[in-house]
Amino acid sequence: MLDSCRLCPRKCEVDRTAGKTGFCRAPLKPKVARAALHFWEEPCLSGVQGSGTVFFSHCNLKCIFCQNYRISQEHFGREVDIPTLASIFRELEQQGAHNINLVSPTPYIPQVAAAIKKARSLGMRIPVVYNSNAYEETGALAQLEGLVDIYLPDLKYASQETADRFSGAPDYFTAASQAIREMYRQVGPPSFDTGGLMTGGLMIRHLILPGQLADTIQVLRWIAGNFPRDVYVSLMAQYFPTYRALQTPPLNRRLTTAEYNQAVDTLLQLGLESGYVQELSAADQCYVPNFDGTGVPPSLPPD
To answer: pTM to 2 decimals?
Structure first.
């Protein structure tokens, strides 16, 4: 798949094994910007000891409001090989992580699959979380069946106009909705251990954007109409203006209390009562990780 890359809906078909890059500009080797315990995910993921987050560089979207733009758009990070990526997973487990949380791994699906297999062969036992923008290709996701325990997609838009304007994503909703159905097929509804930590299943995120309440309502209605009412939804209110959104109305402002309240009311009216609703106080830059290469060693020497 990497000699004619079709890992995401863009289907660039570039030969990454020959050093070519497509829309996302991702290299052949996975590029990682940070690997550390993270305590600001949903409570069932962060728990007490933290989620073992591995932040990958490069992205197949161009979101003008991306809070992680330093790695998604500016591509900060270090390239690592598969054994090193597996060792990163194992190190996070040894630090006490409740899970391995793969953040924006889409450009590296085959390499990530190989690293999970290697880490498990070395004794890794904690769940693996696939944390993505949902702009996925179902054929690529099939490579992860049996390897990913928890899917955590962010269903960003229902409106194609909005997807084009803010992320430059052709056919976003068509691709994302198909991908989320595939994720659910693989892992099913959420499951939890006796301590309330998520051990498997699907949880759908949605970030409320200022001035885009109609789109939020469409997203929530789609979820309610296509999944059981006990599907886990994480309604996120952490938006603050950053990156190119600072010059793009209406994204150059924060959510209003009225927008937030209406989104929450819609969620409850649709019967989507399982999951989480983020407080407006989460809209603070202090929760954005410091992308400084923490936890990312040079690639291991050959065996």
So the answer is: 0.97
